[in-house]
Amino acid sequence: MPWPVLVFDIETIPDMAGWRRLNPNDAALSDAQVHAQWQTERVAEGKSDFMPLYLQRILCISCVFRNAEGLRVHSFVDRDGHSEAKVVQTFFQAIEKHAPQLVSWNGSGFDLPVLHYRGLMHGVVADKYWDLGDDDREFKWNNYISRYHMRHLDLMDLLAKYTPKNNAPMDALAKLCGFPGKLGMDGSQVYAQFQAGHTEDIRRYCETDVMNTYLLYCRFQKMRGGFTEAEYEQEIAFVQDELGNLAPQEPHWQEYLQAWT
């Protein structure tokens, strides 16, 4: 296995402050009013009511970090509404420190473009991530940016043979592989949960999503020969043990383990 591995997933909410900056006539309206107006207009036009990626504010980045020393689940969360810059910078600092293989599900289509836009807006520094071989020659042939390189592995994109019509939802594929899949909510419910003050529930949901992605990555490694059958079974048992250790402090892992077939 190519340790270290950093599997990541983000949860976002509409950037209403950014919307007002671009649409000053809406300054007197509440966030809920502006968002409802946006949704109504988009639906009436037969368009998606999901705000564009540059108007997605990052609320949470959840990670599974696996190296030779063990496995860690950690989330960077903007709990006060003013920490998005720190959340994004901390994520890129982890890449700077460890130069891991990044793994995602639809990271190229959503998570990374959002991180790019928000990083640009906040003045984030991410030297290693953007290296295309100028600083490290190895990155010329295997970097985080190129679609067909493995330093960032978008599992959804690769398994679909880089053909969007073939894309599969992570929840469905996880369940088909015998993993728990999504628990508690889905992405369409995140903003409502945020408005209700349930940030920690969103964080827990994001963590279970990223764990599903790690398990799918392990299954992929077995398929491609990165794991032998015995190594794969050992890793799955290791993950279950680690989650069992986390369950007393974080009950969502107990629920996750109970849903594991």
Description:
The chain is an alpha/beta fold and 261 residues long. The protein has one domain (5-258): 2-Layer Sandwich (Nucleotidyltransferase, domain 5), CATH 3.30.420.10. Helices cover 50% and strands 14% of the residues. It is built from twelve helices and five strands. The protein has helices spanning 16-22, 31-44, 84-98, 107-122, 127-130, 138-141, 155-159, 170-176, 190-195, 199-224, 229-246, 251-258; strands spanning 5-14, 56-67, 70-77, 101-104, 152-154. It has a five-stranded mixed β-sheet, with helices on both faces. The longest helix is centred in the C-terminal third of the chain and has 26 residues, at 199-224. The radius of gyration is 19 Å and the shape is globular. It starts with a strand and ends with a helix. The mean pLDDT is 95.
* General form: globular
Share of helical residues? 40-55%
Radius of gyration: 19 Å
- List the secondary-structure elements in sequence, H or E: EHHEEHEHHHEHHHHHH
Q: Can you identify the CATH class?
A: Alpha Beta
Q: pLDDT average, as an integer?
A: 95
Number of structural units classed as domains: 1
Number of strands: 5
Which features characterize this protein?
261 residues, alpha/beta, Nucleotidyltransferase, domain 5, 5-stranded mixed beta sheet, 12 helices, 5 strands, 50% helix, 14% strand
